[in-house]
Design goal:
Mean pLDDT: 89
Number of strands: 8
Shape: elongated
Order of helices and strands: HEEEEEEEE
Low-confidence stretches: none
Length: 149
């Protein structure tokens, strides 16, 4: 995060706020971060991330079509990088295709424990509440139906 104190040992207020914002986000969504592993794909969406050093501010704003994925055990975490204005997120990587696992349940971390969703041929359609429980990004906990269970 490249955060350091001033020469007198104090941490600037602006930097303190960044740290507090990160902590607040992790209080809601930390389950989707701590102890997780990569999924079969890192993410999806149209926004291209600028590569290399010192280009962190060159990336365009994320859209409601941008998602990142993590797993822990048999749980998939889908992190939405922007809240959809129409209240519906569509996760294309979880489309109902031949050989795909059916989704059994879906929850919004810090929010509704059982969101309404439909797994269609074009993706998993998630019907979200009017506002996000966290600033910046939101996380969904996805459980799959497993054969024989």
């Amino acid at each position: 995060m490249n955060i350091g104190p001033r020469s007198d040992g104090t941490i600037p207020e602006q930097v303190q706020q960044v740290l507090l914002d990160v902590g607040a986000w992790l209080n809601v969504n930390g389950e989707a971060i701590y102890g997780t592993r990569p999924w079969r794909t890192y993410g999806e969406g149209p926004t291209k991330v600028a590569g290399g050093s010192f280009h962190d501010t060159d990336t365009a704003n994320y859209t409601a079509e941008d998602f990142r994925f993590n797993t822990k055990g048999d749980t998939l975490y889908v992190i939405g990088l922007a809240w959809p204005a129409n209240g519906q997120a569509v996760v294309r990587s979880l489309a109902a295709t031949v050989g795909s696992e059916p989704v059994a349940s879906l929850a919004l971390l810090g929010g509704d424990p059982s969101l309404r969703f439909e797994q269609k041929a074009d993706g998993l359609h998630v019907y979200l509440p009017s506002s996000s429980p966290a600033k910046y990004a939101y996380a969904l906990r996805v459980k799959f139906q497993h054969a024989g269970r």
